[in-house]
Amino acid sequence: MGNNTAGEVITCKAAVAWGPGQPLVMEEILVDPPQKMEVRIKVLFTSICHTDLSAWKGENESQRAYPRIFGHEASGIVESIGEGVTDLKEGDHVVPIFNGECGECEYCRCERTNMCRDYGVNPMKKAMVADGGCRFRTKETGEPIFHFLNTSTFSEFTVVESACVVKVDPGFPLEKMAMLSCGVSTGVGAAWNTADVKAGSTVAIFGLGSVGLAVAAGARARGALKIIGVDINPAKFVKAQELGITDCINPKGIETASHEEIKRLTGGGGVDYSFECTGNSAVLREAFLSTHLGWGLTVLLGVHPGPKMLPLHPMELFNGQQITGSVFGGFKGKTHLPSFAEDCMRGAVNLEEFISHELPFEKINEAFQLLQGGESLRCLMHL
Questions:
Q1: Nearest to 173 by CA among 379, 293, 341
Q2: Transmembrane segments in this chain: where (predicted)?
Q3: What pTM does this model have?
Q4: Distance between CA 71 and CA 381 in Å, rounded?
């Protein structure tokens, strides 16, 4: 990529959200140069996650900010870098990540977490750390356009803090690398890092969207013996079985509770690991009850927007079952993602299986409808 645009304001197309639930508007915007410790990326591929969907709907009023550029799953090429950036350069193939890693704060230095003090996942954040400003502006009036989840990938060019950019092998196909920005890393990492699924174990997954099926792929790669998928949309079961699910349960199609059916399928004891990927507290309780007394582990992956507390009695934890959360699959982005990409390219996880649809960027509203209707896993958009 030529460096003729470095330091210049770039005019490009972006899908701008002007209000909750309103169709995204494809329009020309201005993208400012990267400031200190920032990177400007030419986005080549982006896709839509359920987090984009819920944010677009404005389900959590406290997180609303408009106009805004959503999107946090993508891949592209570094167009230019700001002052102080030393680990990236123009032309690098990169993946932006919503859960950054500065490498210097107490969180990044701690092996027990993948949080980052300043660049971790923060749905309230809508501007850049360096100066509190936005790097996107409307072309007509210069009005600021807010950022989203550290990334804002629904734009031909985006500016991202360098802590939230991961360099990948230039020999790896960028259309597949986009899958590592969120869903696949979150699900596979939950199985590998958070739960550390063992060979021969039993697993239950509640919610068979992209994250749930990534959990299945991760559990399958680890040699899980039985992987039970639970979803109220039986249309998802064919794809689920392709990705490693051995048994499927539709809660609406059985007379007993899901956890009772799971215990029946596991000989009465329950599963070693359960994963809740729906953001529904009633489902979380079913996931917890489906695990084996004494050692069962429930991993919470779904985003729970409401004020409801955990649906557990404290004494239930005395039975030996545990519950924990997982963000970005426990991966430290810059430290772990390059090697995870290599694992995927070697066949541990088939990233292509998660791309169910492909559309040009201009048809982003169609892609939203595919996801909202439960018809797609990931719709890859070409910019």
A1: 341
A2: none
A3: 0.96
A4: 11
> 13 is written with which tokens?
């197309």
Round to whole Å and give the CA distance between 129 and 141: 24
349 and 177 Cβ atoms separated by less than 8 Å = no
* Structure token digits, residue 30: 């201005």
- In three state form, how does the secondary structure of 292-311 look? CCCCCEEEECCCCCCCCCCC
Nearest partner of 288 among 257, 267, 264, judged by Cα: 257
Residue type for position 228: I
Looking at residue 176, the DSSP 8-state letter turns out to be: H
C-beta atoms surrounding 172 within 10 Å:
19
**pLDDT tens digits, residue range 198-242?**
999 999 999 999 999 999 999 999 999 999 999 999 999 999 999
Residues 265-289 have pLDDT tens digits of 999 999 999 999 999 999 999 999 9
Burial class (CB in 10 A: 0-12, 13-18, 19+), 142: exposed
Residue 171 exposed, middle or buried by CB count within 10 Å (0-12, 13-18, 19+): exposed
